[in-house]
What does this fold into?
Amino acid sequence: MEGTGRDGRITKEEAQKAAEAKKQAPPPKPGKPEEKPAEAPKPQVSFTPRESFSRNATRKKMSRMRRTIAKRLVSAKNETAMLTTFNEVDLTEVMAMRKKYQEKFVEKYGIKLGFMSIFAKACAKALLEMPDVNAYLVDENELEYHDYADISIAISTPNGLVVPPVHNVESLHFAEIEHKIKELSTKAREGTLSLDEMSGGTFTITNGGVFGSLNSTPILNEPQSAILGMHGIKPRPMAIDGEVKIRPMMYLALSYDHRVIDGSTSVTFLVKVRDYLEDPMTMFLDI
It folds into this structure.
């Protein structure tokens, strides 16, 4: 409001008139009350009637193989002084080697260079260096030592786990090991393994990593005194020469019979296997 006084100021009379006009103005009409937004309809949840749930149970006789496996596992757990030691391995060099030479390897030998043959070869070299891990009890008072490494490979079949050995791994070429593992795996899944092919073995390797296992405590394959458990390869940050680098890491587990193998021996053996895998060229150079 602009007044009529000096410099546009509002005079006293103008102020009084404005106050009177405000008093005489009709009160504002009441408006409609504010409407609340309509609530969204609540979802209707329906539950399956309890009487429709399945409550059936069936019984199935165990196969002969499953019964045999069960007895052997219970025996190994109850009759041995089984312990497990763990370590981890950086598979950077193994994976680089496979990537670099895989095509030429397949071209020459007709089969891929897998992890299993590399692990088997590393274990075989360590076994000959540490004969206690490659020995087993033949009775309560006598140990049997071996100057060869017959490595049993755990193979999953529809009927259960079988562990046929690859003989003289220490003397075989990587391609020979791969072909033998493939042959045994095919026969195992077809159910055509002979008793001779199932017999023997001085050490076992099992690979739970193919099924997604991160770590485990593998159970002994009697009468053997040790078994190596492989697991999944996971990229993890590792401290390398003062820097953090992402490396393909695998946990290793060695279960062993403490009646035959001392704790220090088991740890040393696993460290040797790790060292061979982290520098695989030493296996080719035999150093």
